[in-house]
Write a structure and sequence with these properties.
alpha/beta; 2-enoyl-CoA Hydratase, Chain A, domain 1; Lyase 2-enoyl-coa Hydratase, Chain  A, domain 2; 2 domains; six-stranded mixed β-sheet; three-stranded mixed β-sheet
């Protein structure tokens, strides 16, 4: 556990909670740091099978903490410096969920603005309460979305929709979020639904799940021949492997599988 992020791991499912409920989980410098720490930990944990990301209290994340605007260190940061391979610290807070090798489900309720929306979109799936209030809010403060959002949204939201929401900063509901492509599913109890899906995923072969995420992550980056070859490489590595044989045997014997953790 960190100061502003709570991490609980049970039965292979990591539950990550943004934990500044009194501030609607607004992104403070400390929360940024703690999310990076937890994200790095989960990237290298071969025991986890799925991640559920949500916010404590009445909001998922209200976006950037207003304290940043009065902080000379924050306002003078060189954002062009890469702290990671392709990202700066702020971008990595959203991008890391895309990089974590197992599926990540965001359970979203209350308010999800600005940086919170970008963090949500780093997840593989987004379960959203119908009454959630969402916004690409940066234009309100004379800024642009700069936490990897433009690179995440392009895979599941039409460009003209991204433009309209970015240029206006208007607030839209969870119901509209599903219509526009931001929400995978509408849920009256997003956290419970996300945990249920995570449990289903956790019962599958971890080798196959990780391979599937690698393929899906690459589908917008590779040309067709490279994508076809990537499928073949992943499948060939799985066929006849210990966990693939266990999946077959468990189905034939009508029992729960006993999968091994993947190699790091």
């Amino acid at each position: 556990m960190t100061t502003t992020v709570e991490l609980q791991i049970r039965d292979g499912i990591a539950q990550v909670t943004l934990n500044r409920p009194d501030k609607m989980n607004a992104l403070s410098r400390e929360l940024f740091k703690d999310l990076l720490t937890v994200g790095a930990q989960l990237k290298n944990d071969t025991h986890i099978r799925a991640v559920v990301l949500h916010g404590a209290g009445n909001a998922f994340c209200a976006g950037l903490d207003m304290g940043f605007f009065g902080d000379p260190e924050s306002m003078n940061t060189d954002l062009t410096q890469r702290s990671y391979d392709i990202t700066n610290d702020f971008q990595q807070v959203a991008w890391v969920w895309h990089e974590i090798p197992v599926p990540v489900i965001a359970a979203v309720h209350g308010t999800c603005f600005g940086g919170g929306l970008q963090i949500m979109c780093g997840a593989d799936m987004r379960y959203v309460h119908p009454e959630t209030r969402l916004s690409i809010l940066e234009i309100k403060w004379g800024l642009v979305p700069d936490m990897a959002g433009t690179q995440l949204w392009k895979t599941f939201v039409r460009e003209d929709i991204i433009r309209e929401l970015t240029y206006t900063g208007r607030i839209f509901s969870g119901e509209e979020a599903q219509q526009l492509g931001f929400a995978t599913r509408l849920c009256n109890q997003p956290l419970e639904a996300a945990l249920e899906t995570a449990a289903v995923i956790a019962a599958k072969s971890p080798d196959a799940i990780r391979a599937a995420k690698r393929l899906i992550n690459q589908q917008s980056e590779l040309d067709v021949p490279a994508g076809m070859m990537a499928e073949s490489v992943e499948q060939q590595a799985l066929m006849g492997s210990r966990n693939q044989i266990e999946a077959i045997m468990a189905n034939m014997e009508k029992r729960s599988p006993r999968f091994s953790d993947p190699q790091s």
